[in-house]
Design a protein that fits this description.
InterPro entries: P-loop_NTPase (IPR027417), Sulfotransfer_4 (IPR040632). This is NAD dependent epimerase/dehydratase. Keywords: Membrane, Transmembrane, Transmembrane helix. By secondary structure, the protein is mainly α. It has two domains: about 230 residues, P-loop containing nucleotide triphosphate hydrolases (Rossmann fold), CATH 3.40.50; about 60 residues. The chain is about 55% helix and about 5% strand. The chain is built from 13 helices and five strands. Strands 2-3-1-4-5 form a five-stranded parallel β-sheet, with helices on both faces. Helix 3 packs parallel to helix 9 and helix 8 packs across helix 9. The protein is elongated, with a radius of gyration of 34 Å. The protein starts with 18 loop residues before the first strand and ends in a 13-residue tail after the last helix.
Length: about 325
């Protein structure tokens, strides 16, 4: 493996990291993101990754070099030393323009982010496991379950391929891509147990999905509640997410249909060319049967008994 990709994208931090939202997708992270924006923060989330797909290879590299077991990480070709995992410098490159971070893929790096930004305040979004699994099965995990998206990942085609590969790698390190069941429950419970061990009670704010409020959030962040800010944004993007995934599904299907149509036209063209040549070859073969007669007529002219001649008695 050559040099790390992150080394080719140096970027200095333009604002200090102030808030780490360490909660998995579909646990109220969207509500927190909207609330933070209303309070003047600039949070990074999956939405920002999607609007800047050039960062996807960097997050994939972060997973490979930081979250995979040591024996599975790539090494330098010459001296076989392991590439260093991502730390503050690398996360500054990825998140330097933001002062808050939430949702995947960043949430998978809870330990690394807490160690990189010990001065940042930590918010933990939670949801009952059964409800979370059902929500994920009806939204995020569709990217990994629908066959057409699996094809984009396997073949590396369409604009969905980088995202589906990133998602596959994220949940690969999270629960081995079990996507539900006992192993996923264990991974879910371990994630939150690890976060609570990293950030002791009193230094974190836990917000249960659908039960956030301005007062506790503003007190924890030590900021004033803006006037006229309205009700706390307890939101659920599940429906809009599925709608977006269905639209992406159709785009991929149309792409495969276009490719299939082009292949079919090409095959039909080759078949027609082949049969045209084959039929001409057979026609030439049939003509050769008459060559002796043609030669006979050419040698003897038109003399002889013709159809219009009368024989003498």
């Amino acid at each position: 493996m050559g040099p790390r990709l992150i080394n080719n994208a140096p970027r200095e931090r333009t604002k200090p990291m102030r808030v780490l939202v360490l909660g998995l997708s579909r646990t109220g992270t969207t509500s927190i993101l909207v609330a933070l924006r209303k309070l003047g923060y600039t949070p990074y989330s999956m939405r920002d990754l999607l609007t800047n797909p050039a960062s996807i290879p960097l997050w994939r590299e972060a997973i490979t070099l930081t979250l995979l077991p040591t024996h599975k990480r790539p090494t330098r070709i010459r001296n076989r030393t392991i590439f260093p995992p991502f730390a503050r410098q690398e996360f500054d490159t990825l998140l330097g323009e933001y002062d808050a971070v939430a949702d995947l893929p960043a949430a998978l790096f809870a330990k690394e982010l807490v160690e990189a930004y010990p001065e940042a305040k930590v918010i933990v979004t939670t949801k009952a496991y059964e409800e979370w699994e059902r929500s994920m099965s009806e939204s995020v995990w569709l990217l990994l379950k629908w066959r057409v998206f699996q094809l984009t990942r396997w073949l590396g085609v369409t604009q969905m391929a980088p995202l589906t590969r990133l998602m596959h790698e994220m949940f690969g390190v999270f629960d081995g891509n079990s996507l539900g069941g006992r192993r996923t429950r264990e991974a879910y419970e371990k994630y939150y147990a690890d976060v609570r061990e990293l950030v002791p009670e009193g230094k974190r704010l836990e917000v249960q999905s659908g039960k956030g409020d301005w007062d506790s959030l503003c007190v924890f962040l030590q900021v004033e509640k803006p006037e006229g800010v309205g009700a706390y944004p307890n939101m659920d993007e599940g429906t809009s997410m599925v709608k977006g995934l269905r639209a992406a599904w159709w785009e991929v299907v149309e792409w495969f249909g276009l490719i299939a149509g082009m292949v079919l036209v090409t095959v039909v063209g080759f078949v027609m060319i082949y049969w045209q040549a084959e039929l001409w070859s057979r026609f030439e073969g049939a003509l050769k049967v008459f060559e002796p007669w043609v030669g006979f007529l050419e040698r003897n002219g038109t003399e002889g008994v013709g159809l219009g001649e009368k024989s003498e008695l």
